[in-house]
Amino acid sequence: MTSIQIPELSFSLIAPELILCTAAIVILLVDLYVKNVERINITLLALIGIVLAFFSAGTLYGASELAFSWLIIRDDMSVVIDQIFLIGAALIVLMSHHYSERYHFPYGEYIVLLLFSTLGMLIISASADLITLFLGVELVSITLFVLTGFEKKSLLSGEASLKYLLLGAFSSAFMVYGIAFIFGMCRTTNLISIGSLLSEDFIGSPLLILGFALLLVGLGFKIALAPFHMWAPDVYQGAPTPITAWIAAGSKLAGFIALVRVFSLPDISFHPLARTWVEGIWWLSLLTMIIGNAGALVQKDIKRMLAYSSIAHGGYLSMAFVSHNDVGLQALLFYLAAYLFMTIGAFAVVIAAGRHGEERRRISDFAGLAKRRPFLAAMMSLFLLSLAGMPPTAGFIGKVWLFGSAIQAQYYGLAIVGILTTLFSFYYYLRVIVYMYMRDEEKEFEAEPLSVSLTLALSLSALGVLILGVFPNTLMKVITNSVIVL
Amino acid sequence: MISLNHYLILSAVLFSVGALGVLLRRNALIILMSVELMLNAANLAIVAFARYPFFREVGLAAEDLAVAGNGMVFVFLVMTVAAAEVGVGLAIIINLYRQRQTINIEIANLLQG
Amino acid sequence: MLLLDYFPIFIMASLAMAFAGGTVLASFWVGPRQDKSEKLDTYECGMPPIGTPHERFNVKFFLVAMVFVIFDIEIVFLFLWAVIFRRLGWFGLAEMGIFLMILVFALLYVWEKGVLEWASKAK
Q1: What is the ipTM of this complex?
Q2: Which residue of C has its CA nearest to A26?
Q3: Most exposed residue of A403, B5, B73, C77, measured as fewest CB within 10 angstroms of its CB?
Q4: Interchain CB distance below 8 Å, A134 and B81
Q5: Closest chain B residue to C72 measured between Cα atoms?
Q6: Which range of residues forms the domain containing residue C67?
């Protein structure tokens, strides 16, 4: 009986994932067996796990290895992305601490699911195989389905989670079917092997193109690209607000990283076949920018408005795949980081401006906020201006870099549409600011004092937006290096 | 003689039936079942591709076995994910039923622009 | 000529149909008839049925079904592992121990939440 050769296991390369998973399980057990555990302790445990994972990811810079029989790739890009995810997760935990007090969630389970969804994102960023990629995407989706429906009494939340579940499962079926064809044609699911196969004289059969197209449709659903965006506004509106922020920032980031892993490996992306999906993404990007911005113009609900704005940002971001060069990829990573801060910040303001039973949902509810809560109004203006792309915020640098990459690749049409829709977008972002500063409030909202956790989340997001806007060089350098290594 | 193409056609038919079910039916449970059908159609395609070397008459190479193993393990993982999706889906549907006494998705239409 | 070869089959088929149809008709003509209400019941013997067949199930059934589906799938991985158990050696045992330990945490959760107790209400 021959013994089986066991592939080399390098657990140190997946240390952030292991730490996060352990933290989640510890919190689950603490929540089960410690009677009347204070919510603050759970929050602190989660934050400790996230911070440990953050620093253990930091030690992995410069690793650039394939591990676990090529299932995991640990390059600098994955480390940067992991750290961005972990910062986002920490901000969401802080927001949830405040929000869950307002609505009395079963907090332990909520945090466990939140950490598992972050784990899924880390897996996506480090996956070198379609199998790990698929598992990561599903881990993110399934935990978010549950989290979306966490307000069990709320009709909106229940309906949103059902819609998210049905369309999410539908899109995963497309993903699996696409992976089936890629596997059938290339006879492997490993992205690096697929890349080297494609770069040899491998004539792309229609089935292979179909496979990649189905995969693109599946991932397009997850990041709400234009023809597949229908679920997004409903889910964003119905989900508990911290989860909306996490879907808008984390899940979208994860979807884009999955796209980067599939479509941007150098070997795959410079294959003649690449023209096919570059053209596909060109149309998706164009449609998404137009539909997202047009949809945001007419919304009355603030969360729906931010949902359409997030769809529009998906359009700008996918421009990077069209321009299809190193600059595009670097701009994408930078803009994703900036986008994370400004989106989470905007939703944090939406939470802070409301109180139990009286959320400020409609845009007109924000009238007169500047008089009553000047700090919140200033924060909201900062995040909205950054989303619109005003200097000196992070959004401006990101947009300039992204559009620049499209121009460099001579996709002038797409860049012009991007700039025009950005100008349009100023209208609906500024409308909220006008309401906050120039209108008197229609009905009185009793103020709820700003909690420490929410203040922390708000100021950290604001700090992120400003630092990336004023001193973008630090992150730029890291990103530029990481993409060259790739 | 059943060839790879037969399996692929069957899986395409199953996938289309599932997709039509999702688009046409209004009962949330049946939609979930249709999604399962789509996932299993994809599984069938993967297994057929994994067995593809075995359809040839020449002897099997070691790498053929590796390809087969790769595909079949993927199928198991997809089945696991599908089970998790069903578990979560049932919970969400029960919650919806408790709220509204129906699982018809057309009645669940509070969220509109 | 060629049709003639099928003649025995034709005979066979008509005999079979005649027999099947004949017995049904014969019992219709010959058999006694009693249209009593017991004859129309769903079950001829046992308890008289209560309520409609579209009975609503206790939600516990769904909970148990969900838990079953999730834990059922683990068998798939145990099976793969068991096939090459000896060749994997201690390494395989340790890995499966970790895998099962994670599942035990899930089981503890389900247990503590009271899903496994049929009678009492969930905590």
Answers
A1: 0.93
A2: C105
A3: B5
A4: yes
A5: B83
A6: 59-113
